[in-house]
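Take our chain:
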Amino acid sequence: MADILPTATPPSTRYSRFVVKSNDVLQGESRINVMKENSEEVIWFKERYLGEKEIVEHIVHNATRTICWTVHRPLRGWYIRLRAPTFPPGVFITFNPVPSRSSHYTEAALSFHSRTSLPCAPDESPVTTYFASPSPRPPPNRSSSSIHSYPPTPPAAPDLVLQPPSPTSASEDLPNTLPSSGPKKKLKTNPSNPSVSEFVLAPYADPVPSNSLFARVLNSFRDYDKMNYYSFTLSRIAIQAPPPYSSAPGSAGLGLGLGLASASQVPLTMTTSTEASISASSASPSNSSKTSSGDTAPASLPSAATPTSGLTSIKCLPLLTYHDHTSSLTFRSMTGLLEIDQAEEQLLGIDTSFWIAAALAYLDFLSDRGVSEVLLLLV
């Protein structure tokens, strides 16, 4: 069953909004345009090309005509691979179905892994997966402070020079344990390791407004042709440590409640099993990367906190939400509103074009899936 958002997204400057709209069917080439809300200026567009073995879609920055990302799907079989033109050959970001045993499983949900700017634990195991570092050109009219790249590269840590204080500058009330003279000690710190985050794309249903019966009937007649078949969300999966063990009666349940309340503020501590992201696989479907997303996610929260409880994975608030406004009376066309949480985007440190490409790839997946279901009903 599709996820149901608790409330509608309130209008706020925190969210950047884009209109996703296909061009006229009568035009020569099929394109999906992404425009700023209340503007006719196209920022990105998607074009489809048919190859010998794959269907390749280009996500192009309209102002510079630069290919930011490409989406690869086979003519036969199934896989979805996202890559940048600067990736080495055979390196992809792979979309995988969410396992049914995962607590984040919903029908038609897909997951992928990506390197982000989130802090990781210092004792985290080293990532053995290969990473590329392309820097797609950002959209124009954006300040340098808001420019991101994929994957985000943490800034190099400055060298720390420790120099003992001189006798004249040392305070009299400090203990005389520090040496008054000696050579400078230069300690070079290692830059922080990049973390790998899991993301889940899943359909959702628009919440039903709590209006009167007459208002709901009137809205159903007014919007009867808007079916919202392809609305979905993209959310980050945060890994949270269990609450501390307590033997007091009823304290375990309280700890779980507090843990859920602060889930969005807990630093991401990924384990080795969840760090499979971009695989250095070949372009053949048989060599597609395998992730272990959901293998460590429990089916439900433990009833009590124990010292042996594992990590808990929690779905954060949506980073990206797509509201489908496509009319059921149209043929081979789509329109919708795409919202991106700017605060979460800044936290992850990835360029907006990456989220646009991931959303358009999943939108195609839902569209093809809907066509297949209709064909099965007609047979």
